[in-house]
Amino acid sequence: MLQILYNPIMNYSLLLHGFITLLIGNFAGVGYSKSIRKIIANENGWKLLHSATLMGSIMLMTFAVFFNDLTSGFRYSTYLFYAVIISNYCFVAGMLLAALSSARGLDKNEAGRNNKIVYWFYYVAAILSLAYTFIFIFLLTKKLG
């Protein structure tokens, strides 16, 4: 069923997923620390995972502040909500696999299965992020105008 009315569960869910992502980012800090000390490989991958998941968690927590107000009356708000969540976790999964395997995932034609998987995680996340960003801008212009 499509979400049309105010739903505080969405705000709390965004907060929950923000804190889960924050926890993943904090654990990634352990990997980053070990990679700095040369105990494990791929320092740049662990640094990216650590910093980007912390930023992603802050983004989700920030969205929780305005999501319901901005999307009230928008008949596809549930889909928008899931696009935000799925995009975040696709970025996290891609960065985690990249840190563990040293795959970069920057080109779908790059050799290696892990590179292709990382690429597709990033691709899905980027498409969803682009879509929800445009929708948020559209909703903001409706509220302002």
Automatic annotation (TrEMBL):
This is DUF4149 domain-containing protein. The keyword Transmembrane helix applies. It holds the Pfam family SOI. The keyword Transmembrane helix applies. The lineage of its organism: Bacteria, Pseudomonadati, Bacteroidota, Chitinophagia, Chitinophagales. InterPro entries: SOI/HabA-like (IPR058965). Keywords: Membrane, Transmembrane, Transmembrane helix. It comes from the Bacteria. The chain crosses the membrane at residues 12-33, 45-67, 79-100, 120-140.
